[in-house]
Amino acid sequence: MRSVRLCVLSSGSGGNSLWVDAGATRILIDAGLPLRETARRCKGAGLDVRDLTDVFLTHEHADHSHAAGILGVRVHATRGTMRSLRDPPPEELRFAVRAGVAVRLAGLTVTPVALPHDACEPVAYVVDDGATRAAVLTDLGSVTAGVVRALRDLDALILEMNHDVQMLLEGPYPWSLKQRIRGGRGHLSNEQGACLLESILHGGLRHLVLAHLSEHNNSEKHARKAAEGVLAKHGSHAKVCIGSQGRALDPVLLEPSRAVPLRKARQLALFG
Predict the structure, then answer these.
(1) C-alpha distance from residue 259 to each of 202, 214, 235, 247, 255 (Å)
(2) What is the full per-residue pLDDT of the chain (272 aa) written as tens digits?
(3) pTM score, two decimals?
(4) Would you call 43 helix, strand, or coil by DSSP?
(5) Which residues of 97-107 are buried (b: 16+ CB within 10 A; e: fewer)?
(6) In terms of Cα–Cα distance, which of 3, 65, 81, 60 is closest to 28?
(7) d(C-alpha 59, C-alpha 31), whole Å
(8) How large is the C-alpha radius of gyration of the chain?
(9) CA separation (Å) from 233 to 112, 198, 252?
């Protein structure tokens, strides 16, 4: 049985990158690290950056797109993102994507999902090999109905839990930046991330990575408490990891498995 391998190479404001491979396809979702550091982290995780076939960008901010133009592989991004890149790839390596329209590669389907964020046409991505599904969801300030629909029946989820609201309000950032982060096009708080997790949680979710934690406005303890509270409430045995800015996480192998029932969740009101 074919399987999908995931490896969070980096997560945070200093650079974001997720390795995904299935069959003959090996992609990065975001390329926010310098090329040399990307190669180093891949090697440490038993991967080889030279095997890459494609890069998918969520948006143009440098912590997600820094090395995209120099990796020498096909780069997929929305037209808005591609236009906004500081250092775009050569024209022959640019491939436009559109939210809701799947990109089919050898052994893997990648579907962009529209997000509310202060970037030009940002998206999340769901990857699917026909037997397992995973998603990377960071850099959004609020949760839409479309996001919830896209995240159903996942085996693995990389989920933004950017800040603890109290830490943000009491922290060193200027008020304008605090308002931007908390706004509907900013970043998800631990509470918002936990609420979204509860709305899409099912018995087949086996891996949860808490991502894009703020260095100044959050802590692993706060983020983990919020997520694990939801999992415990519903009897989920999903494994929780924290995405790191300083090192790659151990690769995760996704293989088809039978979902187990969870305790019934209450109805949630994530959006109007």
Answers:
(1) 8, 33, 13, 31, 12
(2) 468 999 999 999 999 999 999 989 999 999 999 999 999 999 999 999 999 999 999 999 999 999 999 999 999 999 999 999 999 999 999 999 999 999 999 999 999 999 999 999 999 999 999 999 999 999 999 999 999 999 999 999 999 999 999 999 999 999 999 999 999 999 999 999 999 999 999 999 999 999 999 999 999 999 999 999 999 999 999 999 999 999 999 999 998 876 677 876 554 445 54
(3) 0.94
(4) helix
(5) bebeeebebee
(6) 65
(7) 10
(8) 17
(9) 30, 9, 25
Contact 227, 210 (CB under 8 A): yes
| Token pair 């998800």: residue | 188
Q: How far is it, in rounded angstroms, from Cα 213 to Cα 177?
A: 16
| Token pair recorded at residue 91 | 């024209």
Distance CA 162, CA 214 (A): 5
Whose tokens are 């099912």? That residue is 202
- Pick the closest to residue 266 from 189, 199, 203, 196 (CA basis): 199
Q: If you count them, how many residues does the chain have?
A: 272
Residue at token pair 């699917």: 128
- In three-state secondary structure terms, 13 is coil
- Residues 111 and 126: their CA atoms lie apart, in Å, by 5
Q: How distant, in Å, are the alpha carbons of 80, 183, 186, 189, 194 from that of 116?
A: 14, 10, 8, 14, 18
Show the tokens assigned to 230: 């939801």
